[in-house]
Amino acid sequence: MTDSRASGSGLPFLYLALPVMDEPDHLERLLLCISSQSYKRFKLFVCVNQPDQWWDDPNRLDVCIRNSESIRILTSYQDFAIEVIDRSSKGNGWKGKRHGVGYARKTLMDTINAVAAEEDVIVSLDADSVFPENYLISIACNFHEHPRSVALAVPYFHNSPPDELACRAMLHYEIYMRHYFLNMARINSPYAFTALGSAMAVPVLAYRAIGGMTPKLSGEDFYFLQKLRKYGEVLLWNDEMVYPEARFSNRVFFGTGPAMIKGAAGDWTSYPVYSGNLFDDIRETYALLSRLHRQPVDTKIVRFIATVFSEDDPLEPLRINHKTPEKFIRAFHEKFDGLRILQYLKTHHDTESSSDEDNLWEFLQRFYPSGELEKLKIDPKGFSFIYSPVEELEKIRMFLFQKEMEVRSISALA
Asked: Is 331 helix (H, G, I), strand (E, B) or coil?
């Protein structure tokens, strides 16, 4: 690290945005992690939150008390400045249906936006994640070196829990995520990124340009990065990673915790390993976009878009309004976006007879040399997410992780 990097000369100021609910057990570890950062030009904003009605619910009262403990920890901390937004004390909690981590992140980012300069950067955190001491400076340098980028989807790696059931569920979920990323990358989708609330950052300028975050009960990180991607380029590479904790948690509706809960009970229907044929359908239409700009072409994706939007020819309005192929293609990707891609995959997944294990090994054997796979020493015919040793799932996780990091590193050179 050069002297200019260590001093922060010319680098952006960082605002750290941390939603907290029922997290006193993790806060002190995270605060120590932040305190240990080599880059000191930052300020932490924390939103401790819950529905106000939980104070009158005996089944939720424990969370309210633990949130009070979180506020005590935060307000008594001395190592660096912390701005606490109290949306949990009685009378201050969320009212009605407007609650959840999505509203907490939006509240944080809107509060930061009101005081930050446009050249500053908002770094999204989660209380149960950790990162190395050069994490913040790696983000500051990344945006300094890529001033036109509108967001950063930070590489991640879940720490393995000691419990075998939790570890197996985490590995299954991470394999699902990395398989999805690698397939999206191979078809050159603009939405080839992983959205994790604990692993993303956005310049204040870009936050203002897109009109801020759209609040969601959960899954807000996915919609947020999708919105930013429609505005500009999302960075995929960073010199340092985030290490989220893998645990059973129902604090949100989507993400690692809920996936692990459902998965441990044998339900992976929300997170299937999709058939490569479905990604090929998307790639086929991508390859025809210049032709689709000139005339209608019947493809599975065009038919799907027609059904979703109830339009006979869903691309005709794009042809009328976008005269150049470049503008038409951009408009297509905004219409058939990351959400629509997921909807297509989910809709057609049930028509595929192949299992998650079949789809995983078909992908591995199709796109990676047999010699690399032989080193894993795993029999594809005998592999099972349920019954195979955890060590085999870990080998596959590591293989996909390494391939994903290769893709991310190449993107940094583009």
From this structure: helix
